[in-house]
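Escalated from tier 1: magnesium ion holo job.
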Amino acid sequence: MQNTFHKTKKYFKITPNLLSYDTVYKSFDWKRADYHLDWFPENKINAAYNAIDRHLNTFRKNKVALYWLGDNDQKQTYTFEDLSNLSNQLANYLKSLGVARGDRVFLFLPRIPYLYISFLGILKIGAVAGTLFSAFQEQALLDRLINSQAKVVITDSTLGTRIKNIKGKLPHLEKIILVDDSTFLQKLSTFSTKTHIAHMDKEDYAFMLYTSGTTGKPKGVVHQHLAILQEHLTAKYVLDLKDEDTYWCTADPGWVTGIAYEILGSWSNGVTAIVYSGRFDPATWYKILQDYKVTIWYTAPTAIRMLMGAGDDLVKKYNLSHLRHLCSVGEPLNPEAIRWGLKVFGLPFHDNWWQTETGAICIANYPCLDIKFGSMGKPVPGVIANIVDDEGNELPVGKEGNLALKKGWPSMMKTIWHRHIKYESYFIKDWYLSGDHAYKDKDGYFWFVGRADDVIKTSGERVGPFEVESALVEHPSVVEAGVIGKPDKLRGEIIKAFIVLKPEYQKKVSLSHLRGGEATETQTTPGVARLPAGRQGRDSPGVKESVKTYSEHLKEELSLYVKKNLAGHAYPREIEFIDRLPKTRSGKIMRRILKAKEMGLPIGDTSTLEEY
Ligand code: ATP
Ligand code: MG
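Tier 2 regenerated the structure:
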């Protein structure tokens, strides 16, 4: 099975922006990187100016910055100048309301153009933009708006009802703006399309947002204007954005990826971006990639697994030959997903790692480097990453421990809003501890093991849920898997896997429960559980207790499969087939919910949980 992708000369359709990783990494110094941005006198800066307005002095002025696509074939096109003018108007409007530097203005909008325009307008007056995922319900909104003490919320008439319902509990909230209200639009048009863009210190707060809540209560992470420096450089080096590219990042700005790589770092590189505000649907996604001749695509493992689940016949119907670079973030990327990318797009997905707190990509696979399947890659130039123990001591190559970054990279969070002690708890000695466990190999590649809380200790061995999930996903019957450690008297923990099967297998499993061995008749895929001919399942009327159902056979086969392909101790002793895995709205598997349910414990904060 292929486990490495070597980049031969033939691979490069275009010379990548980062040609030699080692040379650049060794000589890189943030102090000499300022020239990538435009500065105001006295070392002042504004991230929104760098994303948009600086292009107005160049050939990009009339270049398309945004193709916005909605449901029902809605389309809108904005040039860099359009985005500049509209965000200036928005900035002037906010000023007229008395919004000042440092005030928090929150956006509670679907992915419509005003989300992007407003974000930029807020930064332009030196206020702090906060984003809220549009599916949040009242309690989730309340928690975040109380914590951030937002002065203004920009929303629309549908979502705005939720804000109005809780307004009485928000003493700091002065104004709710509805962007689809005709009086707002009329009022906005009376403001000038020019504005004075606030000259900010590098460390001044620019935006804040709450973490995904995968492991617990979401944290209000605050970022400075200088974050755009790293967002810009990583968009250049990792995403490889160039002027001629059409770029599609599928994230929502309710999460950090949608801010750093759909607004700031991507537009600061002058790229034409696509925003699709509709629901996930494999055929629609392929059609967008085809019709807009997307060249660079930045997405997430959960989406890739769903596309894989939709089958290869579908993807073959589209002409996706314009694609030249694929990237993935948000969760570990299963090796099988990379192999699938190579099969159907002729390109590998490049995994990269970062967090809300890190503000920009920190560890990545690059166009110029070989890919080791399952590895997050190497630290970006300017970021020093290592594996340390709980006291902050560096651990040797190959040893698993805390994934840590040397503090001081430009997009490092400034604080956790109103929880500065929590902020300080991230650091030990010179290191920022990510809360993830990983190890580094002899070539300097980093390998994700799991979130510190998710690592399983079974019979004295440590097992990362990711490797077990990846092994399971390789089996032809599996779409997705979520793996947890379940307390066990004998072994400390045993591995339990929750598995979503491909529809055809799901059907056979339910058939086997209903009608015993009937599923065997349609069973043709080689290597997949087979019931002995003539046998019937246990649930069949009048059949002996000891006879196994198709479902039990499949579970056994899956356990054996992991045992054989991964390790003797790392196989799931328990398997449960489920229809869907609990995930955050940004697509991350919430293992803590699987675990809590398994153990009958309270499931904790569910504000970011996708409808389930
Ligand atoms: P919370 O901190 O509230 O529990 P969260 O950690 O999921 O939520 P984010 O900041 O959105 O919130 O996600 C960052 C985390 O996502 C990382 O710490 C890591 O666990 C996971 N992650 C992101 N990218 C990758 C990747 N390429 N490989 C493995 N894990 C990744
Ligand atoms: Mg986190």
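The chain is about 30% helix and 20% strand.
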